[in-house]
């Protein structure tokens, strides 16, 4: 029985890494492009300023150091967002709203369950991570992290750079940006995030003719297109010699992105 149970756990872990497909939730497509109002993300910026540690090769988060009052402010920020109907705002304002909400919820998940070695340890005995858990309610709709990423962000904006800006609290993930997203800075941060990840060892590592890519390019290959299209995408941002995707392997580090 123990052998069967172990095999079952391995199967769950393996299938848990399979990426959900983009599946539009039409309810969230509505926007009001005439609305020039902005959503306040200053509390999220306050959290980033206080606890994010941007290093040359890796951005880390000081989970252990977060004070009770700052945990409260993060919760207050999330509650303010969930009390807001994003459909009443412009598409650009909505994009910043969803990215910041996703990242703030991820940080809150880690804080609520700290200490832990990996976000994949959350979500229950037979789950690989917490991504399907319903974490917030907006306009009467219960949403998970997977809903935000795969049913809202990916299908509505159809931009592969989204994968560079939603952070899963892991060392293999594209870095959590030190600046909160806004309608006015999103394009700049998308470009900056793509360039930083693609020029990092966790994004691409070349050894002779062998290229090790982040598993993101495997899990979400449909968003990046054919091998030729992916190669063009990578070389658009890559500094130095262009990469040739001949002998490709994939890797990802799920260890917690914690600053010690």
UniProtKB/TrEMBL annotation:
Domain of life: Bacteria
Pfam families, alphabetized: DUF547 (PF04784)
Keywords per UniProt: Signal
Residues spanning the signal sequence: 1-18
Keyword Signal on entry: yes
Domain named DUF547: residues: 87-198
Family matches, as PANTHER family: ELECTRON CARRIER/ PROTEIN DISULFIDE OXIDOREDUCTASE, ELECTRON CARRIER_ PROTEIN DISULFIDE OXIDOREDUCTASE
Protein name in the entry: DUF547 domain-containing protein
Organism (species): Photobacterium proteolyticum
